[in-house]
Design brief:
With 264 residues, this protein is an alpha/beta fold. It has one domain: 4-Layer Sandwich (Purple Acid Phosphatase, chain A, domain 2). It has 4 helices and 13 strands. Helix 1 links the parallel strand 4 and strand 5. Helix 3 runs parallel beside helix 4.
Length: 264
């Protein structure tokens, strides 16, 4: 397991910038977004991050749970594409190869991908990592892009994917996330945040991940897995994005979520 940050920009020797100091702030017990309409393009959100710049402005395009329908997408261009897992449905390597080829056709300068519970072949056969050549693949590890420290994990709490089956195992994993993480990408949502169908009392998020997010306060947390939780919401310190694009009909029903991050 790698818990430090790698580098794809040549900036690795620069000191990592730190988010503004953490203070203990109460956050609501649960958070849900308003629903967004059918996809006609990207949904744009502006986000200002208050730490010294490496790049002045970064456009982040967030998608998740494309389940082999990636070629049906028309994605907005951007500096950084994030896919939060479940790019396959049945774990077939041919679909992974096609996903990787599709990634290579996209114009985004940087692409960061994590597997989801449907992509468990990456756990079953670690050699599959070599199939993703057109993006940075994160499996419980980090990378620095444009001065943004990103950490990603495919682990979910309800599917025993990637071997972290107990609460204690997940707590230990999330304790290894570096404190200076700006963007957290997990396949599953944290408990109580965009983790249920609107109106349902059944929440599917992970309580250990929720505790980690409250402790770390990343500026951005991107996830998917609970398709019905698609949308955005925020606390004072963290913007949460459930970027799951597949809907009940098993078609692409939601639009990519686009963030313009201004670094001050
Ligand atoms: Zn999914």
């Amino acid at each position: 397991m790698i818990t430090g940050f790698g580098d794809v920009t040549g900036d690795a020797k620069k000191p990592f910038v730190s988010p503004v100091p953490t203070r203990n702030r109460p956050i609501p017990k649960t958070i849900d977004s308003t629903r967004h309409g059918p996809a006609t393009g990207g949904m744009l959100i502006s986000l200002i991050l208050t730490f010294p710049p490496v790049c002045r402005r970064v456009r982040v395009v967030c998608i998740s749970d494309t389940h082999e329908l990636h070629r049906e997408l028309t994605l907005p261009d951007g500096d950084l594409l994030i896919h939060a897992g479940d790019f396959t449905f049945w774990n077939h390597t041919a679909k992974i190869e096609d996903f990787n080829a599709w990634l290579g056709e996209l114009p985004h300068r940087y692409k960061v991908v994590i597997p989801g519970n449907h992509d468990r072949v990456f756990k079953q056969d670690p050699r599959c990592r070599a199939m993703i050549t057109n993006a940075v693949l994160l499996i419980n590890e980090g990378v620095t892009v444009c001065g943004l420290n990103i950490w990603g994990s495919p682990v979910t709490c309800d599917d025993a994917a990637y071997g972290y089956t107990t609460r204690e195992e997940r707590a230990r994993l999330y304790a290894s996330i570096p404190k200076d993480t700006h963007i957290l990408i997990t396949h599953g949502p944290p408990y109580g945040i965009l983790d249920r169908e609107p109106g349902s009392i059944h929440r599917e998020g992970c309580t250990e991940l929720r505790l980690a997010v409250m402790r770390l306060c990343p500026r951005l947390h991107v996830f998917g897995h609970v398709h019905a939780g698609y949308g955005t919401c925020h606390t004072e310190r963290t913007l949460f994005v459930n970027a799951a694009l597949l809907g009940w009909t098993c078609d692409i029903e939601n639009m990519p979520i686009v963030l313009d991050i201004t670094l001050q």
